[in-house]
């Protein structure tokens, strides 16, 4: 395996980690209007991700930095061509982060309700647009000979792209609601389980169509069997997560939901390989792992850094989740407190 392929896998690993971790953050945020019967419920829901949401978002920063360093031409084309979509994601993430911090600063229901709406919007927009973006990367976009994206935002809003966005929206929503069931108690836990069951069925239907479309569109790929196997694994774990949730096994449901995200994103990455930005104008204009990567020396230095830093990051992330592993109970929310 050459270094360019290795770094494609490493960048993919960072994006998988981001979607697994910030994915359930998005789902928790989107669940507020469905599960929050009163302010105590909503505070309990938000507090399930309170200690970890900002740590989860750092995976996106690392993924973006790794993409910039390892594949500068891919980074340039992606971020210039998808500029408006990625800007909307960034604004939504800022709104969500601000809302987590400022929701408890006011002393009126209207103040909290306004920031709750911002949390929902700031969670739903990235959940939708990330799916749209990656679906379009797989399908291909109009890229000219100079590597410039020649389309617009509306170019990305095609049937396959929108289906990809709806898939990630529902997948992250279900993933987040299962996390709420795992981390809360009492009536809220039961409501979360019931909602996860209903959302799981809708997710299975939409994800099955998207994954089948992806597999059928890449039947002539050299690694078509790998794409099909990953898609099948995503489907099986998604069904397993829904079954486990119905059986009241929240830990298994959440774990299988996380596995679904891993396999689904891996399906996308496998379908991309080796064309990281396929051109619909002329296949010769496509960006590949080889022509979009940095120099061999740069990749060598980055590899040594990754060898030492990635295990430390994983250990710290695991320790954080271990420290905050207990359920957030309704009794732990002080009466009259703002957050």
From the structure above, extract its key features:
1% strand; two-stranded antiparallel ribbon; 13 helices; single chain; mainly alpha; 339 residues
Quaternary state, please?
Answer: single chain
User: What's the overall average pLDDT, rounded?
Assistant: 92
Approximate shape = globular
In DSSP terms, counting alpha (H) and pi (I) runs of 4 or more, how many helices? 13
The share of residues in helices is over 70%
Give the helix/strand class: mainly alpha
How far apart lie the N and C ends?
50 Å
What is the topology, as strand order, of the major beta sheet?
1-2
Largest sheet: 2 strands, antiparallel
Radius of gyration: 20 Å
Order of helices and strands: HHHHHHHHHHHHEEH
Number of folding domains? 1
Sheet-strand content, in percent, reads under 5%
Q: Are there runs of 5+ residues with pLDDT below 50, and where?
A: none
Number of strands: 2
Keywords: Cell membrane, Electron transport, Heme, Iron, Membrane, Metal-binding, Oxidoreductase, Transmembrane, Transmembrane helix, Transport
Protein name: Cytochrome d ubiquinol oxidase subunit II
Membrane topology: Multi-pass membrane protein
Family: Belongs to the cytochrome ubiquinol oxidase subunit 2 family.
3D architecture notes:
The structure is a single chain. The protein is an all-alpha fold and 339 residues long. It has one domain. 76% of the residues lie in helices and 1% in strands. The protein has helices at 3-30, 32-35, 39-49, 53-70, 72-81, 83-102, 109-139, 153-156, 159-183, 186-217, 224-246, 250-272, 296-323, and strands at 275-277, 287-288. The protein has a two-stranded antiparallel ribbon with strand order 1-2. The longest helix is centred in the middle third of the chain and has 32 residues, at 186-217. The chain is globular. The N and C termini lie far apart (50 Å).
